[in-house]
């Protein structure tokens, strides 16, 4: 009996020894253990020094979000990272020591907002997008023309010197969005250059552009936004309703010598320009409402064609001539007077 009892006591001991041996034999493979995330490489030292020269913080500009809302993105290259996007806002000569952009050859996007700085002598040719809003005091068309890879160019309230649009656009075959507004551009539109670009957005408002509107714009199948208001264009709008309705935005008001052919376009489009007379000149000053392309059906803004046709006739003297009307009235009065006198004389004779 004692042997059997001892045997029973040994079973739990043996079981514990076996479990201990199994646990000791199980090891976690290093390959399966979670590895710490790789540390990001630092910013290129040249670009870091250039950022400090721009008066920006020495903190990591590649952090997300950016610590100063200027450097917005970097690549992940090794051993150094490089800036891909840079935005400078609300800066002045007191905060920016030197506007040297030679070190930023990796930039794809560069924008300035409210930066009262002299223009740079160099812009990175790698740029795909460039924007300057109330910044850089002035820009030269020669400087902009070197940005051959641009797909988006936006300049607002910045004077542009030099040859203007022909030089700027002559080497930008990939441009999809173009905004140059309040920049003192002058001269006619380079229609052959503009119409050859794959533009979706074209805004050249509030400049001193002149000449007639290019007919080639109607063949730009991808164009969705067209704003040419507040310039000095003249003549007849060469676009039909099909082209205008295809656009999401069409603005042409503020060109006082521009008019539209009422046989091609309805006044209900509210273009903000007057109708043309038979000589292609505006009949009257353009209406006060200059909302551009509109679906408004307000009768006060969109007169019926019959009413306008009558006013056109009166404007051109198409109604009765005043002299002829006066002569006719006088003759009618004399005839009436003669008949009246004859009747009286006959009445007296009968008595």
From TrEMBL:
It comes from the Eukaryota. Keywords: Membrane, Signal, Transmembrane, Transmembrane helix. Residues 1-25 form the signal peptide. The keyword Lipid metabolism does not apply. InterPro entries: Leu-rich_rpt, LRR_dom_sf, RLP_Defense. Pfam families: LRR_8. The chain crosses the membrane at residues 323-344. Residues 307-316 have a biased composition (Basic and acidic residues). Residues 283-316 are annotated as: Disordered. Residues 297-306 have a biased composition (Acidic residues). PANTHER family: OS01G0750400 PROTEIN, RECEPTOR-LIKE PROTEIN 51-RELATED. This is Receptor-like protein 51. It comes from Dioscorea zingiberensis.
């Amino acid at each position: 009996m004692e042997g059997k009892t001892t045997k029973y006591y040994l079973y739990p001991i043996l079981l514990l020894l076996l479990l201990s041996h199994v646990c000791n034999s199980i090891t976690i493979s290093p390959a399966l253990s979670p590895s710490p995330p790789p540390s990001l490489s630092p910013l290129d030292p040249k670009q870091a020094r250039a950022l400090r020269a721009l008066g920006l913080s020495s903190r990591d500009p590649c952090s997300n979000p950016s610590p100063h809302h200027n450097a917005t993105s970097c690549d992940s290259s090794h051993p150094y990272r490089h800036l891909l996007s840079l935005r400078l806002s609300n800066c002045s000569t007191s905060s920016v020591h030197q506007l040297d952009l030679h070190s930023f050859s990796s930039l794809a996007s560069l924008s300035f907002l409210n930066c009262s700085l002299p223009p740079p002598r160099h812009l990175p040719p790698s740029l795909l997008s460039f924007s300057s809003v109330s910044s850089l005091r002035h820009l030269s068309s020669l400087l902009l023309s070197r940005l051959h890879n641009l797909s988006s160019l936006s300049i607002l309230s910045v004077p542009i010197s030099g040859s203007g649009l022909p030089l700027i656009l002559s080497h930008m075959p990939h441009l999809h969005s173009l905004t140059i507004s309040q920049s003192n551009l002058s001269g006619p539109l380079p229609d052959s250059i503009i119409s050859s670009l794959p533009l979706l957005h074209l805004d050249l408002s509030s400049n001193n552009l002149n000449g007639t509107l290019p007919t080639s714009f109607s063949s730009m199948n991808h164009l969705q936004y067209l704003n040419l208001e507040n310039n000095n264009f003249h003549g007849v709008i060469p676009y039909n309703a099909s082209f205008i309705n295809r656009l999401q935005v069409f603005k042409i008001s503020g060109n006082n010598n521009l008019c539209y052919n009422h046989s091609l376009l309805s006044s209900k489009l509210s273009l903000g320009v007057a109708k043309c007379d038979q000589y292609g000149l505006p009949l009257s000053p353009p209406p006060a409402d200059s909302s551009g392309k509109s679906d408004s059906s307000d009768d006060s803004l969109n007169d019926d064609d019959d009413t306008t046709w009558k006013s056109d006739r009166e404007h051109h003297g198409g109604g009765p001539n005043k002299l002829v009307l006066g002569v006719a009235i006088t003759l009618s009065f004399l005839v009436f007077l003669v008949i009246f006198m004859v009747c009286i004389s006959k009445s007296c004779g009968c008595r």
